[in-house]
Design a protein that fits this description.
Elements (H helix, E strand, L loop, with lengths): L11 E5 L5 H8 L3 E6 L3 H10 L4 E3 L8 H7 L8 E5 L12 H6 L5 H12 L3 E6 L6 H16 L2 E9 L10 E9 L11 E2 L9 E2 L4 H4 L24 H8 L65 H7 L12 H10 L3 H15 L2
């Protein structure tokens, strides 16, 4: 369940790397006016249009637009209180990639396009979200350059690496969140709302779990689509993979329990990467949703009990999308949109922090 606040705001949002609209939905729920979205993924842009009918969606690369173009597209003026959302592609900073790959990834340069737009638009506030790798190693040098440039424009900054499970998202998803406020006021950062139930001394709510997020959904089989919810749809499994998931213990099991005949050759001499083909646990947040969240071969995306991967509906819920959110595209398109999105719940809390920072 999303936590929707009754806020009457005159803030206008420009959303860069908008995807299907996860972050924008969170801001909309907090009363922000979503005016412009930019993403070069045409199918994700169609999903955004379906959910934000009054927003101008620009299906182009951020490298091909500038602040003046965005202002005109959103019918914005310098008098408007503009808030910029920017979630540049994070794969370039991911720890899952080799140092040489991260160092040479052209997507790393896209964050400087965000700096360009901030300089041209001069928003009253902005937020950036990315993987933790942006705050360390190769990414740290890039981040320091970016933040230095932004500070010179007169912004006060606050950032930290968070786990979204601590903020009411039923999913472990570590991200660096950066909040910038124009002027002399120090930004307010996100307020933690949930905590690990093992921390007995905490007065916060306990983490949301897989069980209390998707446990009410009807049972389906691999390859089946539920008649009354077309998004409650699970990927088909080859017979060998169906046998593998059947031999994976329920509620958190992994491939180490398989008989010899089911073990992949590449797994026979290693105990690592046990999340692949694994099942989620009912009593814990899910692992990080990715673009492969509908496939058991891409991570721990097996249903806790049923012999299948999680459905698109289940993945969307674990990302805190409401059931009435519209996704456009085929199975793979939708899984990618869900996995790449900022959880709307996180967007709400970020929007709340910005409102508290500005103090209007």
């Amino acid at each position: 369940m999303l936590y929707i606040y009754d806020v009457n705001s005159n803030y206008k949002v420009i959303d860069l790397f908008s995807g299907c609209g996860g972050s924008a939905l969170g801001f909309k729920n907090m009363g922000f006016d979503i005016r412009v979205a930019v993403d070069n993924n045409e199918i994700a842009g169609k999903s955004f249009e379906a959910n934000f009918k009054d927003c101008k969606v620009i299906k182009e690369s951020i490298c091909d637009v500038d602040g003046k173009y965005l202002m005109k597209a959103g019918n914005l003026s310098k008098k408007d209180k503009i808030v910029l959302i920017a979630c540049p592609p994070c794969q370039g900073f991911s720890n899952a990639r080799r140092n040489s790959q991260r160092r040479n990834d052209p997507r790393n340069k896209l964050i400087f396009e965000v700096v360009k737009i901030i300089k041209q638009v001069k928003p009253v506030a902005f937020v950036m979200e990315n993987v933790p790798g942006l705050a360390k190693g190769i990414g740290k040098n890039i981040l320091e350059d970016v933040l230095g440039d932004i500070k010179e424009m007169g912004y006060k900054l606050k950032y930290d690496v968070i786990d979204t499970a601590d903020y009411g998202v039923p999913q472990h998803r570590r991200r660096v969140v950066i909040i910038g406020i124009k002027g002399k006021k120090e930004p307010v950062f996100l307020s933690q709302t949930h905590a690990d139930p093992a921390k007995k001394e905490s007065t916060l709510k306990v983490w949301m779990t897989v069980k209390n997020t998707i446990g009410d959904l009807p049972k389906i089989e691999a390859g089946e689509t539920y008649n009354y919810d077309k998004l409650h749809r699970s990927a088909s499994l080859a017979e060998i993979n169906l046998q593998r998931i059947k031999n994976t213990p329920q509620n958190g099991g992994d491939r180490t329990s398989w008989p010899e005949k089911l073990i992949l050759t590449c797994h026979k001499n290693t105990t690592g990467h046990k999340d692949v083909y694994g099942r989620m646990r009912w009593d814990a947040p899910s692992p990080t949703m990715t673009g492969g969240c509908g496939m058991i071969t891409k991570g721990r995306f097996g249903h806790p009990e049923q012999d299948r991967a999680i459905s698109l509906r289940e993945a969307a819920r674990l990302q805190t999308f409401p059931d009435d959110f519209i996704f456009i595209g085929n199975f793979g398109d939708i899984a990618k949109q869900i996995g790449n999105a900022v959880p709307p719940r996180l967007g709400e809390l970020t929007a709340k922090a910005i409102l508290e920072s500005i103090g209007d």
